[in-house]
């Protein structure tokens, strides 16, 4: 139990959320602020201004300081796979890249930098990092960046580690394992940076990597409040901790994006992604599943005559039983290749299209469950805003898996997870 209050901050891709954890373990003053917009939506880059990100985080903290009564600690979680390169004073040398950055897909002499990176090392090396090698990972983005344009040594920071360092005066250069592993350069078997990957990406060995800790460590003191800032943790792990993930449970985190996850003690190898969790445990997980983005855009397209009642209409339509064949839905509206429906006949209604969309979004969650180790004796756990507010989707998944299910209570699960971490310190 904390002796005084703590501040909880989650840096998401849509909002920066903040709350106060009281000494009685209650969470108060929860509020949110818009995450800064991308500097450009054209081309492969998806970056944000570091100074603007820091201003939003500092503003969020300042908004709850009057409620916090001299807080002891600041704990952070947030979006993984963001990165920047800084000098030894933690001054960014380029904008913060987000998980949507695709600079590694640019062609270079007939092949992309991502394919060049993938082919440069054995597949087992990449497998050991736990991530599927893709363009949004820091390892790919850094490899696709011309490091010769910068002078002197370059520190590799995640979005989260840079924010934590910038909140303090004399920060320690350290990351939590959940944050470090999101880089695509951390060997989960060895529990250390993958030397082959870091040498390949760094080229002339100018890159400096932080020390990695499996437990929360002190980064420094917050300049304004004097509170101790701890190493941030990944938002997926924080949300699942806050939702109450335990052994024998398959969890479905359905929010803006979607994941399926289950606790494990060994690496999943090539069945799915492996990520560090807490207390020496690992997560077996499948990520990047269709979720809030696809559902929201689909509802907007189908409910234009419903006005403010769009989601009430969608809830009712999705809950009605299906007594005839449905068209095929392709719920990738947020993808550059688009999405939609096929096989529509005169007999189909807008409600049918909505039901087809829900079924199509649910299907990859059901299909992914065995890959993370789902057992026929498992319980199901649903968390995330979409799962909490749009019940037809978790109902469709539960119906297909035929297991008892619980839905995490309202409230931000990442902030709840940070509260659990704070109470363990």
From TrEMBL:
Q: Which GO terms describe its molecular function?
A: kinase activity
Give a GO biological-process term.
D-xylose metabolic process
- Superkingdom is Bacteria
Record domain Carbohydrate kinase FGGY N-terminal: where: 7-242
Return the Pfam families for the record.
Answer: FGGY_N
Print the keywords alphabetically: Carbohydrate metabolism, Kinase, Transferase, Xylose metabolism
Similarity comment: Belongs to the FGGY kinase family.
Q: What is this protein called?
A: Sugar kinase
């Amino acid at each position: 139990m904390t002796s005084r209050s703590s501040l909880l901050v989650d840096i998401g891709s849509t909002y920066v959320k903040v709350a106060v954890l009281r000494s009685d373990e209650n969470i108060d003053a929860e509020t949110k602020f818009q995450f800064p917009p991308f500097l450009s939506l054209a081309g492969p880059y998806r970056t944000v201004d570091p100074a603007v990100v820091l201003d939003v985080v500092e503003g969020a903290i300042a908004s709850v300081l009057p409620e916090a009564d001299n807080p002891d600690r600041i704990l952070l979680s947030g979006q993984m796979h963001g990165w920047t390169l800084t000098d030894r004073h933690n001054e960014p040398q380029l904008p913060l890249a987000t998980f949507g950055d695709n600079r590694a897909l640019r062609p270079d002499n007939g092949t992309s930098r991502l394919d060049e990176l993938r082919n440069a090392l054995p597949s087992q090396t990449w497998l050991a990092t736990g991530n599927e090698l893709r363009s949004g990972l820091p390892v790919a983005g850094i490899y696709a960046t011309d490091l010769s344009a910068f002078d002197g040594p370059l520190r590799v920071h995640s979005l989260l580690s840079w924010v934590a360092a910038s909140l303090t005066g004399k920060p320690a250069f350290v990351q939590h394992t959940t944050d470090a592993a999101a880089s695509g350069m951390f060997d989960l078997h060895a529990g250390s940076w993958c030397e082959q990957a870091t040498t390949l990406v760094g080229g002339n060995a100018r890159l400096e990597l932080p020390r990695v800790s499996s437990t929360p460590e002190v980064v420094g003191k917050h300049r304004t409040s004097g509170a101790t800032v701890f190493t941030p943790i990944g938002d997926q792990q924080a949300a699942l901790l806050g939702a109450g993930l335990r052994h024998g449970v398959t969890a479905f985190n359905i929010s803006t994006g979607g994941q399926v996850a289950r606790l494990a003690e060994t690496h999943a190898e090539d069945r799915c992604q492996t990520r560090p969790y807490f207390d020496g445990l690992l997560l077996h997980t499948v990520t990047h599943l269709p979720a809030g983005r696809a559902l929201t855009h689909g509802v907007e397209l189908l409910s234009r005559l419903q006005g403010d009642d769009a989601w009430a209409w969608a809830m009712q339509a999705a809950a009605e039983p299906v007594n005839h064949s449905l068209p095929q839905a392709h719920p990738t509206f947020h993808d550059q290749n688009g999405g939609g429906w096929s096989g529509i006949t005169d007999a189909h209604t807008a409600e049918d299209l909505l039901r087809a969309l829900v079924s199509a979004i649910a299907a990859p969650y059901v299909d992914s469950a065995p890959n993370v180790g789902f057992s026929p004796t498992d319980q199901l756990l649903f968390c995330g805003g979409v799962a909490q507010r749009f019940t037809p989707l978790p109902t469709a998944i539960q119906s297909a898996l035929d297991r008892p299910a619980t839905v995490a209570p309202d409230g931000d699960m990442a902030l709840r997870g940070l509260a659990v971490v704070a109470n363990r310190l």
